[in-house]
Amino acid sequence: xxxxxxxxxxxxxxxxxxxxxxxxxxxxxxxxxxxxxxxxxxxxxxxxxxxxxxxxxxxxxxxxxxxxxxxxxxxxxxxxxxxxxxxxxxxxxxxxxxxxxxxxxxxxxxxxxxxxxxxxxxxxxxxxxxxxxxxxxxxxxxxxxxxxxxxxxxxxxxxxxxxxxxxxxxxxxxxxxxxxxxxxxxxxxxxxxxxxxxxxxxxxxxxxxxxxxxxxxxxxxxxxxxxxxxxxxxxxxxxxxxxxxxxxxxxxxxxxxxxxxxxxxxxxxxxxxxxxxxxxxxxxxxxxxxxxxxxxxxxxxxxxxxxxxxxxxxxxxxxxxxxxxxxxxxxxxxxxxxxxxxxxxxxxxxxxxxxxxxxxxxxxxxxxxxxxxxxxxxxxxxxxxxxxxxxxxxxxxxxxxxxxxxxxxxxxxxxxxxxxxxxxxxxxxxxxxxxxxxxxxxxxxxxxxxxxxxxxxxxxxxxxxxxxxxxxxxxxxxxxxxxxxxxxxxxxxxxxxxxxxxxxxxxxxxxxxxxxxxxxxxxxxxxxxxxxxxxxxxxxxxxxxxxxxxxxxxxxxxxxxxxxxxxxxxxxxxxxxxxxxxxxxxxxxxxxxxxxxxxxxxxxxxxxxxxxxxxxxxxxxxxxxxxxxxxxxxxxxxxxxxxxxxxxxxxxxxxxxxxxxxxxxxxxxxxxxxxxxxxxxxxxxxxxxxxxxxxxx
Amino acid sequence: xxxxxxxxxxxxxxxxxxxxxxxxxxxxxxxxxxxxxxxxxxxxxxxxxxxxxxxxxxxxxxxxxxxxxxxxxxxxxxxxxxxxxxxxxxxxxxxxxxxxxxxxxxxxxxxxxxxxxxxxxxxxxxxxxxxxxxxxxxxxxxxxxxxxxxxxxxxxxxxxxxxxxxxxxxxxxxxxxxxxxxxxxxxxxxxxxxxxxxxxxxxxxxxxxxxxxxxxxxxxxxxxxxxxxxxxxxxxxxxxxxxxxxxxxxxxxxxxxxxxxxxxxxxxxxxxxxxxxxxxxxxxxxxxxxxxxxxxxxxxxxxxxxxxxxxxxxxxxxxxxxxxxxxxxxxxxxxxxxxxxxxxxxxxxxxxxxxxxxxxxxxxxxxxxxxxxxxxxxxxxxxxxxxxxxxxxxxxxxxxxxxxxxxxxxxxxxxxxxxxxxxxxxxxxxxxxxxxxxxxxxxxxxxxxxxxxxxxxxxxxxxxxxxxxxxxxxxxxxxxxxxxxxxxxxxxxxxxxxxxxxxxxxxxxxxxxxxxxxxxxxxxxxxxxxxxxxxxxxxxxxxxxxxxxxxxxxxxxxxxxxxxxxxx
Lengths: 697, 568
Fold this sequence. Notes:
The structure holds two protein chains of two kinds.
Chain A: E1 2-9, E2 13-21, E3 28-36, H1 42-52, E4 60-66, H2 69-75, E5 82-87, H3 93-96, E6 121-124, E7 127-128, E8 134-136, H4 141-152, E9 157-161, H5 170-182, E10 188-190, H6 191-194, H7 200-230, E11 236-240, E12 246-248, H8 249-254, H9 262-278, E13 283-288, E14 293-299, E15 302-303, E16 305-306, E17 309-311, E18 320-322, E19 326-327, E20 330-332, E21 338-342, E22 348-354, H10 373-379, H11 397-408, H12 415-437, E23 449-453, H13 457-468, E24 472-475, H14 482-487, E25 492-503, H15 509-529, E26 537-547, E27 554-558, H16 560-563, H17 568-584, E28 593-604, H18 621-624, E29 625-633, E30 637-645, E31 654-656, E32 659-662, E33 667-670, E34 675-678, E35 684-687
Parallel strand pairs in A: 1-4, 4-11, 5-6, 5-9, 9-10, 13-23, 23-24, 30-32
Antiparallel strand pairs in A: 1-2, 2-3, 7-8, 11-12, 13-14, 14-15, 14-20, 16-19, 17-18, 21-22, 24-35, 25-28, 26-27, 26-28, 29-30, 31-34, 32-33, 34-35
Helix pairs in contact in A: 2-7, 10-12, 11-12, 12-13
Chain B: H1 17-41, H2 45-48, E1 53-59, E2 64-69, H3 78-88, E3 99-102, E4 115-124, E5 127-137, E6 166-170, E7 173-174, H4 176-184, H5 189-217, H6 219-243, E8 247-255, E9 265-274, E10 277-281, H7 298-311, E11 326-329, H8 347-362, E12 380-386, E13 393-398, H9 429-435, E14 438-445, E15 461-467, E16 471-477, E17 498-502, E18 508-511, E19 513-520, E20 524-528, H10 543-552, H11 557-564
Parallel strand pairs in B: 10-11
Antiparallel strand pairs in B: 1-2, 1-5, 3-4, 3-6, 4-5, 6-7, 8-9, 9-10, 12-13, 12-16, 14-15, 15-20, 16-19, 17-18, 17-20
């Protein structure tokens, strides 16, 4: 037997999934559990979880690990004392930023404070042209003074970002190598090691935050490795990245910002993998957690990856750009812990403020007084009060009622009406987020299946699907530890994106091949030096294309083997016209097409255990029946409905709504009319009747 | 009794408050979707990068229900455009499928000819329930100079094609003759007609979504929700205005030049806050100018609305209700209430000036919300020529960043776009050098004098373009060029805006308002934008802050000594 384990460290819980499988058939047993997250020594929670599930670490072949260490260090500004070295004349690029002010009418606006203060932003005489030609070599004598100054100032990490280094990194490399020699022990990150894309502010900021978190990540990974070594772990440790793939611990240390959004990414990867397994290629994936809801769109089995990513960006704040590959998703402040409130003008709102794990919803009885979406679901019968939090907590229903009475009072609403209102607004907010990834990008939700997971996904999914006319909803088995489960389904992966402007027309085949070949060479070197098996390296090629004169690009797959046939370029261009029209509503058949970025996905396949089939034909649906209770449905009002135990549902069984299907960690709210069936893996598949939701008022 | 089985509450007005809230949130979401459609379908960088546009919904009378803005300067342009539409096309003549197009500067929300408004009446059955509207900056609308920007026009007729509330579609049928007229009058017809279709697509999206809301929730409920949303805006705004100090606040300022060599021109305002109302009287402002610095009344509406938003809760929605407390007085024919056929091409400099004028009047009484004066110019900079590598014709056009004023609690912001901008992005150096015939030699904060204070004015920017084209042509449209950003409570004045041309031979020219100045390969165009004004007596600035400024190079040792009396 072989053991694969994944651990996902979240803000509140550390989730673990263990597969104990036969390497021949890949079939085996799956176990899952949750333990408390243990800041600041997160590795302790991981080891706790492994110990609790009874695994012998020396027998574990693969340990996949997702961590929030990078995003935490960034948002808490707990990183190294960082300096920046850049081209003469441009040290203020990091502070000027892009100049945008999304909070349009606030004249007392504050702009993002750069991660490096001005006196630690040094300039060097050097210059590359926009074509990558050396115009001015590095004036080496300037580096001695800079190094001396950084030493004096106690600099702990250095970012180097020169103009046009995405095109020709020679000067940047010279500067970085020299500083490494002059300041041994101080990590130096050069922009071309992290990003080969243009836009100097975005690349500078990316390099700076990489340097900023670099010592933190080094320490974290070191502690985890040491703890594992102590227990004689000899398998492979992989860390989850934001691009939906994993990397070695060496890879994580070399490119730490690649882990910035690892948690959300693995949930979406799990949705994609499950979709592939059960034949659902077009999915809207929705992850409803305690604080936020995240969603993404999977089209023809493909998840989009973007390097236009920001941290701390809101409707009012520009945030900080990071040019690292991140699965494209929309995140809104709408989860189980979202707090409901009424403002001075009588406006009821839900979120984005969250009660978090502490004090948590009112029902937890830990001092929370303001009602949350979880409280509303509880009071409205959608969550079973008798088995709240898996039966570990007796909910404080009296306080919950009182909190809704207080909320409703200024609106003339009773406690139940107020709770219904909170539920309806939470649903409306999530509907708007789902529209952002679908209708707003040119996709019709009626062509997609909604896959909902996370602690709250199943509570809301059916009503959201009704609103958006989505014909089918899937509630996956393992929905509560879906992100951790997803990590066991990912490959080792690194994304390389390189800006290299060139016209796309017949005749450039050799040039394309040459650029990709150079990127592949880079990938081979990285995988070799970062202890990843490069013998089995596989490549997928993409290009970010645009019409000449335009700015926005569309990512299109490039089939290198087809390039030889002579049809290759026109196939790429045809695909671009079609995808551009989907995304931007028009095509320009006569305009020239240009490559902006070359994108290479380098991956190594990891053996993945196969999900188990659930046994069928033993039990009866009556065995799963738990009784009835009153439940409020957004579009159908309050009904007495049957309650079923999810653990006793078997493949082939059907339930017609209205009903609730519950287990220790989730509750599926199934409105009237719709038909739920259980597939051979235990996933719940709900086909919606086409009747539109009735009027509310 | 089972707790979930109770009847839905009805508030005093008979409507369920949660349903009303869901409808109101949906209206806001429709605004966002229209905004995205515009970005998605536009073919012009000025729309999808600079977001120089706004989208909105009004009720049947043209009162603003919801708005999505890319730039603050369009705040008073949508509802007013609908109100003027109703004067040209009475409600009972509007049919489903009609689309009206206008760019006239002198009526309803007009700015300059480049900004084109698309208006779609929304009918449910035969009843007019509202309008879906947007306004966007088209890259080309014809006129005497490329890009339809000029500092030298003397009449509107030189500035481009003028459309006054004409029907682009009638009951769903496109008016092809009109499209032919537009295409024949502009330099880049594909892009212009593309922008037109983007505007129609965004407006139609709004129309369809609003109709769906009416179908879903019914005529009475949605109409009530729209009215209630605006009443809510009014209620909150008036309550907040009442909490501000009652009084009359005055300010004067100047715009230095009009493009035709005349000036300076005086701007004057008297703002009265009383009983939850805001009255702004611009009487005393100079008459309209010969050159295109003029602006229509729209600038006044925008200025007062922006100031109102800035001194009340910025989280409040921007809807017609919020603006009911506003009253504006200004005689016809002033620099900011110009009448036909006054040229208006660079109206945006007057717009920025008048927004800041109202801010300047109120600032001393509202230090919590309003900083000292900023560099006060869009900083419109245009360079046209042939790229030395690609041999393609290029037009570089960008607004400039500058210093903002200090507040009573902190230093001003370094390098931000002006108050009339918003979700506006600068052009990265690495992109600019690939696209345009320039090499950029520095993009940095400068150390010119100005902005001293207990809290220091934000730093202006110096930007160097080395011309790499054989020849290129420079257009600049700056104000705040000889006057300086104002300080507050003893804070020093900031510095001013200018472009220098350092010729190959060593000659230096300074330009602030000019069209098509020839520059040659090797010439250096060096642009300075102003520092913002300071706050408070510089002598009260802490030693730590001065030392930090010296360490960071935001000020020179001489400035530390002379402005702050600082001795090492």
